[in-house]
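ok trying this again, last paste got cut off
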Amino acid sequence: MTEAPPQFSELLPPEIIHMIGRLEFLARSAKEGTVNGRHTSPHKGFSVEFAEHRQYVTGDDLRNLDWRVYGKSDRYYIKQYIEETNLRATLIVDASGSMAYAGDHAAGLGERERLSKFEYARYLASALAYLLIRQQDAVGLVTFDGGIRTYLRPTAKPSQVRTVLEELARTLPGRDTRCAATFHEIADRIPSRGLVVIVSDLFDDAEAIKKALHHFRFKRHELVVFHLMAEEELTFPFDKFDDFRCLEVEGRRLNLDPSTIRASYLERVKSHLKSIELACGQMQADYVPVNTRTPVPEALFTYFSQRRV
């Protein structure tokens, strides 16, 4: 029997709301937007922090003339300031078959609760959406497996939290993964630079993923990658001859002795993770490895406490 999806309200339990109340997300680079907020804009305006002078031209507001400069140079100059603006964030959540895996050691919200990687991703994305809307930023959502399944454009309306949570609640893991190709498609669809948050196990060719992540950076997005893995995927503790079933291709099974492949498997996993981590470092993206045995609030708090603007 298929387990019923959660109600959207269940994706923001009290312990997450309480923790988020102590957090703040500040963008590291200039962001474009239309609502005054707490992030630096690439545009010059007349608001908070002084940036530079420029020579007066007909039509400029005389209230912004710098009379001290005029007194020294006998020329008219305008004071320019750096605008603060809202952040436009796009949350990209992997809903492929591999995300349905829930190991014996998954923790979720508490020590007694086991969540699949996708359920874990739901909580992460819900918490981030709530945090960003709470600070008057715009949030959008993309879910994907073999391609884009849902595309919600970013908006800062308070009702967007409910819209995002409802979409996450009714989404179930699909089948095959095409991370790299889908990331390229998403990068082309996001209209203006902002924040891109990826929540995925990144089960795809590492080189292809790296090129796709560079596409986001080429479009001048700030990038945060939550790389979700289950404890068993990281340690491969299996010791009995058994069937291993693929969660993305119907009917694909392997009957094997785990001890014969453990060393090579662990080496390949280590290489894959390191490759993605190094690529993120080179493009100044946040790489956040997450083991699903870590409770969601702890994983979020650790990330925000380590993040530096």
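PB: full thing came through this time. Residues 39-85 form one domain.
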